[in-house]
Amino acid sequence: MSDETTNGAAVPAEAGTQQAFTVEKIYVKDVSFEVPGAPGIFSDNVAPELNLNLNQRVQRLNENAFEVVLGVTLTCKAGEKTAYVAEVQQAGVFGLVGLEPQTIDALLGTQCPSILFPYVRQLLSDLIQAGGFPPFFLQPINFEGLYAETLRQRAAQGEAALANSEPAGNA
Questions:
Q1: Long-range CB contacts (< 8 A, 24+ apart) of 130-135?
Q2: Could you identify which of 33, 43, 88, 138 might form a hypothetical disulfide with 127, taking C-beta atoms 3.0 to 4.6 angstroms apart as the criterion?
């Protein structure tokens, strides 16, 4: 068996099928920043409360390409008032060729959002500062841990579905 090189990594050649994981495109899909109480909110001297919502969507574009969208919504409240709402949807198109379905699922759930994360962090920080607020630094996210939790939830749902579909015993 010979080894081929893809993106600097050795990949075993298997019956003419090359394996590849490529980043085809990274782009901002949607962005929004609102300061509903401006300019009054800037004079309020209330400790801010932050609420972060993280989500991810995957869409198959063709046999070997997927769009992954990493979405972050950050809401900052000052007392009862909303100081700001920042929403970023950072997207990427990733090529996944010659890989097993489980490997594709793992890459889409871990590596792709990890690649998009620095772009989300920078854009979110820039928006908040441009809005007149102190810098906000989004802390690192363990996408491997989130993916492992997703797998646990899938397994639990599968077991629950299986238990609900089993025929009842004869009395």
A1: 130/33, 131/33, 131/35, 131/84, 131/86, 132/35, 132/38, 132/42, 133/76, 133/83, 133/84
A2: 33
Q: Residue 15 corresponds to which tokens in the numbers above?
A: 């019956």
Cα–Cα distance measured from residue 46 to residue 23, given in angstroms and rounded to the nearest whole number: 43
Q: What's the pLDDT at 1?
A: 42
DSSP string of 39-60? TGGGG----EEEEEEEEEEEEE
What distance in Å separates the CA atoms of residue 119 and residue 90, rounded to the nearest whole number? Answer: 7
Domain ranges of the chain: 16-157
CATH class of 16-157: alpha beta
pTM of the model: 0.80
